[in-house]
UniProtKB/TrEMBL annotation:
Recorded metabolic or biological pathway in which this protein acts: Isoprenoid biosynthesis; isopentenyl diphosphate biosynthesis via DXP pathway; isopentenyl diphosphate from 1-deoxy-D-xylulose 5-phosphate: step 2/6; Isoprenoid biosynthesis; isopentenyl diphosphate biosynthesis via DXP pathway; isopentenyl diphosphate from 1-deoxy-D-xylulose 5-phosphate: step 4/6
Protein name (Swiss-Prot/TrEMBL): Bifunctional enzyme IspD/IspF
HAMAP family hit by this protein: IspD (MF_00108), IspDF (MF_01520), IspF (MF_00107)
Residues covered by region (2-C-methyl-D-erythritol 2,4-cyclodiphosphate synthase): 227-381
Site (described: Transition state stabilizer): R19, K26, H259, T358
GO molecular function: 2-C-methyl-D-erythritol 2,4-cyclodiphosphate synthase activity; 2-C-methyl-D-erythritol 4-phosphate cytidylyltransferase activity; metal ion binding
Known cofactor(s): a divalent metal cation
Pfam families according to UniProt: IspD, YgbB
Chain's role: Bifunctional enzyme that catalyzes the formation of 4-diphosphocytidyl-2-C-methyl-D-erythritol from CTP and 2-C-methyl-D-erythritol 4-phosphate (MEP) (IspD), and catalyzes the conversion of 4-diphosphocytidyl-2-C-methyl-D-erythritol 2-phosphate (CDP-ME2P) to 2-C-methyl-D-erythritol 2,4-cyclodiphosphate (ME-CPP) with a corresponding release of cytidine 5-monophosphate (CMP) (IspF).
Gene name of the record: ispDF
Residue stretches making up the 2-C-methyl-D-erythritol 2,4-cyclodiphosphate synthase domain: 227-379
Top-level taxon of the source organism: Bacteria
Record-linked PROSITE patterns: ISPD, ISPF
Site annotation Positions MEP for the nucleophilic attack: residues: R159, K215
Amino acid sequence: MNNKKKTAVIIAAAGTGKRMGSSIPKQYLKIGGEPILLKSVRAFCDNKEIDWIVVVTNGDYIQACLEMKDRYGLDKIQAVIEGGEERQDSVYRAIVEIDRLCPEIEYVLVHDGARPFVRQETINAVLEAAEEKGAAVACVPVKDSIRQEKDGESANLPRQRLYAVQTPQGFQKEILRKAYEQAFADGYYGTDDATLAERIGQSVALVRGTYDNIKITTREDMPMESRVGTGFDVHQLKEGLPLVLGGVKIPFEKGLLGHSDADVLVHALMDALLGAAALGDIGRHFPDTDPQYRGISSMELLRRVKGLLDKNGWRVGNVDITLMAQRPKIKSLIGDMTDNLSKTLDLETCRINIKGTTTERLGFVGREEGIAAQAVCLLYR
């Protein structure tokens, strides 16, 4: 590649993300703790062939984008502008901005802000092909069989010659500008930039992309974030108190001492869930100094913890709980405990495991002075 030729990138990030069903545009959702848009932009900031970046975003998020630029040192971003009604309108606004602010730009790449996994080799290959051919797109061979529907009938299309088109798409700037101007003159709206270039007679080179360079459009496209949490709790056994474990009231001469109903099994589980979500612990949310929690059912507290998980987008994958008690034996009660947790967490029983063990009469558990519980959970979102 000729390093003397100045290259700009247009990041198309003005969509509202209706298909994602999110309260914020999809490009501002986070993957691995970072906004999708940040990952998309950073790929081009890290490429030495790129001189200039224009981000086109939703008007309500211009300030957020500028703050992201400053926070992460994205110095190649030279302009953040408001997008138009359609993607085509947004990209054209960026072309006009490039002509106005940096007319010496010779090549332009257009990239979807919701494609955060683009690789450096793809960027370089598209730019090199654009310099050689005038226009180029990243694409991958179609893996699935494709059928075309017409008038209620369908026919198979030979996939050997079919490609799924991605971004970046690269162009000589003048070719891209003319393609857009002609499309608007004709009242034509295309699905991508290469289609507009083809309409003015420009051939488009195909550059092999990568299958992981997906465009995040729906929730199914979001890679799952998973976390593991652990919880541990101990309560003292005392004569004459009710004994509740896993939401099941158990006939026994002793019960557990605590501010709530002292369900040690559920307490350990709640701490595991809160820990995995980085939401603190039960002492923070339900302090034993607060009279409103005196005698409260731990299953009710678990329901509230589930609400906190829901609010933060977390779902429970599975839970595994070990109850440590010399007595009583819980084997016959595990089914009822599992059902209680299943209903409260909205989790299949096959994802819940409860087991009991003793300490071979060692320690406070072995002396029947208390009961302990340990829990492990997996969360995902």
